[in-house]
Design a protein that fits this description.
By secondary structure, the chain is of the alpha/beta class. The protein has one domain: 5'-nuclease (Rossmann fold). It has a 5-stranded parallel sheet with strand order 3-2-1-4-5. α1 packs across α3 and α5 crosses α6.
Length: 185
Amino acid sequence: MPTGKPKLFWDSCVFISMLTGEGRTPGEMTALLEVEQFVKDGHATVFTSAITLVEVLELHLTPEHSVKFRGLVANPDYPFVPVDVRIGELAREIRDYHHARGVKIKTPDTIQLAVAIHYKADALHTYDGCGNKRKKTDLLMLPRPICGKYNIEISIPKLPARVSPLRGDEQLPLAEDLPETTESQ
């Protein structure tokens, strides 16, 4: 029977919340910390894109938050995957599909979504759309499946539903499918 750890993609805002806690309810922070511990215990893999590095560092973090974030960037448990032409083409497909339907998704969001889809994340975790000013362009509000064909769960951080051994021919993408990262990436 095939087994594997769930792969979770974290949007930039999840890292920002993990660092600062700003804008999150106590329940959201508890859930985020549970997921973080689940990953630390080796039950799931979290990954994100290099775009997250840009989005987080543009915030002018406190020195303490900056050191903590730099530690995450260097931590192999939180790989930051590169954005390449394949991701760019998928992001363009996502943007064009939704723009044609009147939903103008921001470019960084389309890139993040493309990375999650391309590397077969089981879920994309984000807070984009959970506030009081929800818009149809927020990641949490997008109609599924994405582009009418990509089935990916988009939710606020929560423990994965599929954490037990799989049955039959079901197979989760394995963490080993993620590209190798080096410090220079």
